[in-house]
Amino acid sequence: MESTSKYSEFTSPIRNGGKASFDVHVYFDGHSEHEVKFMKNTRQAIIEKFPELIVYDVHDRVIGPHPLPMFEVDLFSPAQFGAFIPWLAINHGPLSVLIHPNTGNSRLDHTQNAIWIGDKLDLKLDTLDRAEEMDEVARRLQDVVGKVTGGVEETRRLQH
Q: What is the pTM of this model?
């Protein structure tokens, strides 16, 4: 059987190359001693069994759209996704897991494009809207700076 790029690249518009194609958020109840211990053991098992994955530090408080403390794992290829997600589906225990692609549309990625393992949690989507507004302001500011810088360089060139 012939292999296709579908096994080595994610479908568009999912990001390929460089930055993470999928984010995996593993949530836990910070007030439950059992869940905190289970989370720590699960995170350590991920680090040991999947050393090529990026596993971030634990956020022991609520951050961004995430309603519970969590840690994040980044996936960069279909092969990583295919190996890791089935393992996590079997080994997530009491933890809820959000898996979402990175397409450039945070709201869609965290809602319509999201996959849940375990209990689905209600995300704080208003934080995504504010983040996207700030990203747009940053893009516009970069455009203005680029135009100003280009204008200054053109003025200097004409003066010489």
A: 0.78
